[in-house]
Amino acid sequence: MARPLRIVFPDAFYHVTSRGNARSAVFKSKRDREKFLEYLGTATERYNAMIHAYCLMDNHYHLLVETPSANLPQIMRHINGGYTAYFNSKRATSGHLFQGRYKAIVVEKDEYAKELSRYIHLNPVRAKMVGSPAAYTWSSYNFYIGAKKSPEWLHRDFILGYFGGKTSAAQKRYREFVDSLVDREYESPLNEVTGSVLLGTDQFIEFIKERYLSDKNPSRDLPALRQIVSGISMEKVIATVDATFEEGSALAKAVSIYLCRKYTGAKLSSIGDQFEMRDAAISQAYKRFKNRIENDNKLRERVEQAEKKIRMSNVET
Predict the structure, then answer these.
(1) Nearest to 241, CA basis, from 252, 230, 231
(2) How far apart are CA 200 and CA 207, in angstroms?
(3) CA spacing 20 to 30 A to 204: which of 23, 44, 66, 227?
(4) Mind listing the pLDDT tens digit for each residue in 73-105?
(5) pTM of the entire structure?
(6) Mean pLDDT along residues 193-211
């Protein structure tokens, strides 16, 4: 398994997720969920973590975490490692509880914090576990709207600050903000993630690249880093695909979308503009084609030939 790219710096803001092995449940009882929340609390005490929002589903969780001390790996070892030890001890089992490594996306918080908090709080509704976010016990939503007394370790003020200075008014507006999408289809803010690890404006992404990624070696086993710093353009990808497949065909378009997503590090919106498609359609097309080549050896070989040409052309230039 390729190692994830970890971008760590003071005051970084992350959307963190971790899923159970083989999508199995990581929370099987009320006490399990309470214990996990205890680890969130002690992470704020021991490691100066700032937990802005959370949602505990059955087989995974979502967190918005800020790290004033630039120590996300230590925070996550405490949370995932401590909870795994508890879970295994309680059930007399051993081994990994979570599937691989946790996923951490660096977020430009001023642009995306409130949207991500809404996305997190609507998770149980999207999963059809409840009809409204307030009906779900195991998220931070009810603390945001003032329905329950918030734990001291939960940092609500930053996100609520976008909804007014007075707490009661901000809580009411936040509830309206979240509830407005309860019965509507909407595009996930995570569709805009660049290179699997960055969510923000073009200026933010360039800042992170120059400040924190310029000294990293993209030849190492870090696919996300190769996507972000490779310098491969959509134009180069499309030209290579057109030279390998029938130019203008539906197959060439599908391959181009797949490889643009895989290699350029461009946002979904940029790829969508290139192909005159919506962000969600690009995401779906990428997933469909990925599944397609997993089951078609001949097509996969042709796509791999195009990939080799793209990588070689980037080395030559």
Answers:
(1) 252
(2) 10
(3) 44
(4) 999 999 999 999 999 999 998 889 999 889 999
(5) 0.75
(6) 84
Q: Residue type for 33, please?
A: R
Contact at 8 Å (CB) between 121 and 139? Answer: yes
Strand 60-67 relative to strand 12-19: parallel, antiparallel, unpaired? antiparallel
**Mind listing the pLDDT tens digit for each residue in 29-66?**
999 999 999 999 999 999 999 999 999 999 999 999 99
Compute φ and ψ for 312, nearest 5 degrees: -70, -40
Token digits of residue 257: 């979308």
Q: DSSP letters of 28-93? A: -SHHHHHHHHHHHHHHHHHH--EEEEEEE-SSEEEEEEEETTS-HHHHHIIIIIHHHHHHHHHHT-
CATH topology of domain 230-316: Chromosomal Replication Initiator Protein Dnaa; Chain: A; (1.10.1750)
Cα(250)–Cα(214) distance, integer angstroms: 37
DSSP E strand boundaries for 57-200: 60-67, 103-107, 198-199
Q: What angle do CA 17, 212, 114 make, to 5 degrees?
A: 40
Fold classification of 12-192 is Alpha-Beta Plaits (3.30.70)
Domain positions in the chain are 12-192, 230-316
- Residue 247 CA to residue 239 CA, distance in Å, equals 9
Which amino acid, 176? E
Cβ contact 45:35 at 8 Å: no
Letter string b/e over residues 153-173, b meaning 16 or more CB atoms within 10 A of that residue's CB: bbbbebbbeebeeeeeebbee
For 129-169, write each residue's pLDDT tens digit: 999 999 999 999 999 999 999 999 999 999 999 998 899 99
What CA–CA distance (Å, rounded) separates 278 from 267? 12
